Write the structure tokens for this entry.
Amino acid sequence: MKDIFVVADNIYSPLGATTAENFAQLRRGIRGVRPQARAEIAEDPFYAALFDPGICAGNAAHTKFEQLLIASVGDTLATAGIDPADDRTILILSTTKGNIALLEEGEGNIALLEEGEGNIGLPENGEAGAARLTLGSSARLLARHFGFVNPPLVVSNACISGVLAILTGMRLIRSGRYDTAVVVGADTVTRFVFSGFASFQALSAGPCRPFDQARDGINLGEAAATVVLSAHRRYRGNLRIRGGAMTNDANHISGPSRTGEELAAAIARSLAEAGCRPSAIGHVSAHGTATQYNDEMEARAITLAGLQAVPVNSLKGYYGHTLGAAGLVESIVTLQTMREDLVLPSPGFETNGVSTPLHICTSPLHVPLDHCLKTASGFGGCNAAMVISK
């Protein structure tokens, strides 16, 4: 099976503008999640990982969401040494809400409802007002900005979007259609997004506590992240995406499986595709949202997959839940974890709160890492798993 190498990556978050800056902050135990007072998002203070209000100010041509994408892709392309105009290169966008903030702008910012940057595919009926809101228009705008010649692809599948986008890039390259995939994900926290999770009573009143007995919900977060994948043999010394799989438990529109069997099946299929036994996995980067049902399901799945003793962490205490960027951000941190053979602690965890206890890291763990597993789950019962190898 064709090897898929990681060429370059970027995390653009409240903790830093590059992967190196982000990981340096994580090593120091710095968290992006902190108390926020943002009246445009919620009337009362809340905990989240948000960019400073002025981070994307002064650019009338692009929305905040678009600026995050451009910043992350731009940094990655600068170090990747690839040509976006190569017809063997594909751009893949992962997001759950995209430019949803435009719904809150009102008539005073109607110009932003047009796709802009020339004619990049307005609807046939000419209703440009709806065009800027579509995920496809965001992907086309980004492609035009950097000069990608192939039509971009959008992956939007709840909170597994980032992992699934990486796996989509892997599969497209293995199919022989492309040699290189640029995979980017981003989401921002808006009143629409915040109120949606609040309506589920899924938000924690304090810093989130994945897998902990006292966990009571998620923190939201903002970020963009990019990974460049390639099959070129000149990258054969780089880390590789070895295998991955997706399942759906069809349990409930928002509640996950009660058994964990479906995520466990995705893990088993990922390991089989990667040619790895469970004993070869040195670390699991869990989805770990800190909700009661997600963490319980994920703990059962990891146990069913034979990985109960493997060091596990959740990064949600650092970044919050960054939605369409989460799978990418956390996969990139896993890449850096493998480069440094350093598993980061899981913020907020003190006392086991799941029925099948896991080996949750509470302090930095230096251990040789040849193979790691990334998991993700989302609304609608979707699950994904991915194996990364040296």
In short: The two ends are 16 Å apart (CA to CA). The longest strand covers residues 4-12.
